[in-house]
Specification:
alpha+beta, 2 domains, four-stranded antiparallel β-sheet, 4 strands, about 300 residues, Alpha-Beta Plaits, elongated
Length: about 300
């Protein structure tokens, strides 16, 4: 019962402190809002770039084997069987010469001109090899390169590695930016709590004199810090979702038509983003408050 009364008192004192410092509190909420807005936009950007890189990788992590024109049906079937027996192969797709020229026609609005005037189909048959692990592609290429049935091999290893490097740089840059802005938020909360401590210096001394516990003295300041950070984060989360939904409405189709990438829908990540925001808000509020209290309250 006593603990419940103490908790209620801490809550009341915390909200009294919030009211007393409402001017500075507003500054804190606006700062947290702005910081978390940047975090949200940064997070959604990184997630979509990562998704785009994965999409590109999945479309490029294939080995395309073009067959010689004089390769017989039996030889082609033999090669397909040999490849299907390899444990590193995920899937095989055979594209005949006829299918190849149809695909080429589909790529052009006036594709019929490709076939008109041609006495012979210039497009070779091919086998598209999808691998379980792109790291095994080098060995696969070396093996096929000496095969008499194979005319040419295409493999986009360098391009894939460049995409992976870009993705890695963006993730590292995003993480560094995240650390910087969260540190800034903690600094802001800490300074707001310092103002609250200074305004209640005499009251704190009296509580210490009568033997109030550390948690009883620190509690209201932690509540104040949590209030600012949670409210600021909640407002920024709503704003981030609104902005992102508007962005999807306007740019989803053009982006898909240009780079064949479907933006991540907000309902797919709303819960995860919400949990991240709550965790960051609690972390910022708690650390900012406790850092200030530890330094300025000798309890």
């Amino acid at each position: 019962m006593r603990k419940i009364r103490s908790f209620k008192t801490m809550m009341v004192n915390g909200f009294i402190s919030i009211w007393r410092n409402k001017g500075m509190g507003l500054v804190s909420i606006v700062t947290i809002f702005a910081v978390m807005l940047i975090v949200g936009i940064l997070l959604l950007t990184v997630l979509n770039i990562n998704g785009f890189v994965q999409t590109i990788n999945s479309s490029l992590d294939k080995v395309i084997v073009y067959l010689n024109d004089d390769t017989t049906v039996e030889e082609t079937n033999g090669l397909l069987f040999e490849l299907s027996e390899k444990p590193e192969v995920e899937m095989l797709t055979y594209v005949s010469k006829e299918q190849a020229i149809i695909k080429a026609q589909d790529m052009f609005s006036e594709g019929s001109f490709i076939q008109s005037g041609l006495e012979k189909n210039p497009f070779p048959a091919s086998i598209i090899i999808e691998l379980k692990n792109i790291d095994t592609a080098d060995q696969m290429v070396k093996t096929l390169d000496t095969d008499s049935r194979v005319e040419e091999i295409r493999y986009y290893k360098d391009l894939i590695e460049k995409f992976i490097q870009v993705d890695r740089v963006i993730k590292i840059g995003g993480f560094i930016a995240f650390i910087v802005i969260v540190t800034l938020s903690i600094f802001v909360i800490s300074n707001i709590i310092k103002v609250a401590i200074a305004s209640r210096g005499e009251e704190i001394e009296i509580m210490k004199y009568v033997g109030a516990s550390e948690s009883f003295i620190k509690g209201p300041f932690v509540i104040e810090g949590l209030f600012y950070s949670v409210l600021g984060s909640a407002l920024s989360l709503i704003t981030v979702f609104y902005i992102y939904n508007k962005f999807i409405e306007v740019y989803e189709r053009p982006i898909y038509e240009y780079v064949s990438y479907q933006l991540i829908e907000i309902n797919e990540i709303a819960l995860d983003i919400g949990i991240i925001f709550v965790a960051i808000a609690i972390g910022i509020g708690s650390i900012g408050s406790l850092t200030s209290i530890k330094k300025y309250l000798k309890v």
